Protein 1
Amino acid sequence: MSFANVILDREAPTVAQRRAIAKAITLLESTRDDHRKQADELLTALLPHTGKSFRLGISGVPGVGKSTFIETLGLFLIDKGHRVAVLTIDPSSTVSGGSILGDKTRMEKLSVHERAYIRPSPSSGTLGGVAEKTREAMLVCEAAGYDIVIVETVGVGQSETAVAGMTDMFVLLQLPNAGDDLQAIKKGVMELADLVVINKADIDKDAATRAQAQITSALRLFGHHGNPAHAQAMQAAHAVPGSPEAEIRFWQPRVMQLSALLGTGVDAFWTAVTEFKSLQSANGRLTMRREKQALAWMWERIDAGLKHAFRHHPHVRELLPQTIAAVTGGTLPASTAARNLLAAQDHHTPI
Ligand code: GDP
């Protein structure tokens, strides 16, 4: 495939490479069977050249300052010599066709910078499907030499889990008043966070400091400390919980203050990310996380593929209308209906 070569060619002119990346991602997002086959070939060709970037997940409610932060951080990183790709998972676009993340001009300077590549969320399909496309787009960007990939999402639905499941580090943005109502912060999302950033600290420094203290203690309660995998890893390393050794060997989620608008705290943020990266590389957690993610992705896509095949099986399709009528009409228990349909598929599937 000719554009695979352009993607991999570090000497290719930026415009040509961007065009090749866009073409590749469009191919990945296509629902046509022949396109999917080409996309699989492309991914297989690119795979040996992927995995060298740092994958950073960023989430937060609309208005918290995600795009301001990514613009500031992206330009800061480019200044340090990095190439930055920004991908987005916008669950609102898959549910309603509308878009929380895409309906305004975002990241004005970053989007036109030749060392940055920004791609909005695929706009149709289930969250699982969109996450799959984004993950594949991430591989294309890595193959093209982007060494920092930022995956952004809004704090609604299950999209945070999807982003945390495809990145090396998951960062949650919060407002300075977040600490006033910790209940409002979804516990499950807090557990995913490797780093919490209190943005807009310039507006209310006191509130930001309060939020930082409150979230720090909340993280101690239900953060990685309570995580069985973390406890196991500490045991394996013969580290005593709470000892300086344990603190050093394993990353403890942190809370920082920042102003994306003024750029204050961005340097300290990146120092923390760099620390995270070297610590998790040294203790093997980074590799473990990626291995687990790749397998989870495989199983998720198998589940989705089986469901798709099941729904399109001729005998299932034949039985489905009457079964649905019987279940909704109250004459057939849902569990029996499910067993009947599964059996219909089993009996007639050619081996
Ligand atoms: P997003 O919806 O999370 O992407 O949020 P935006 O980045 O669009 O920011 C929402 C609003 O907050 C914009 O008007 C920004 O200028 C403003 N904003 C973002 N970060 C900061 C900050 O650190 N300080 C202040 N004062 N305003 C900010």
Note: Strands lie at 54-60, 84-89, 116-119, 148-154, 169-174, 195-198, 254-257.
Protein 2
Amino acid sequence: MKTSVNVVTPNGNVYDNDADIVSAKTESGEIGVLPRHVPLVAPLVTSAVRVKNEGAEDSISVSGGFLEVRPDQVTILAETAELPADIDVDRAQKAKERAENRLNQDDEEIDQKRAQQALLRAEIRLKVAERK
Ligand code: ATP
């Protein structure tokens, strides 16, 4: 028994596979989804989704969106999603530095929460890119 996994963004389909287990991070915490899981919908947080299938593991960086679980299917509707091979490491490194600089400037004009989110996206992309 497998569950099928589908990751989609507004730009299109990013990933399709069968899985023994899918791990994702929702606003209420980390979740491991096995086949026949009870249906649920949960908001996703910026994180690495991991898909284990036949001993192989794929990692996908995701930001925003929702996780929808049905007994035989996991759908991830994300604002952004990238596989390791799609990640531009230099771009993520620069985004990380920009966000860190913003966070280090003690300026009220700067939206700290937005900078924190940008930093997290960059950090997750760099982590997932290592799995190329
Ligand atoms: P940047 O400041 O570099 O644009 P960001 O975190 O603000 O980074 P997002 O708004 O999350 O970027 O994403 C915009 C689009 O660019 C999405 O389609 C996303 O998949 C893609 N993207 C962002 N960063 C990278 C990256 N390092 N490598 C590949 N694609 C990326």
Note: The domain at 88-129 is CATH 1.20.5.440 (Single alpha-helices involved in coiled-coils or other helix-helix interfaces).
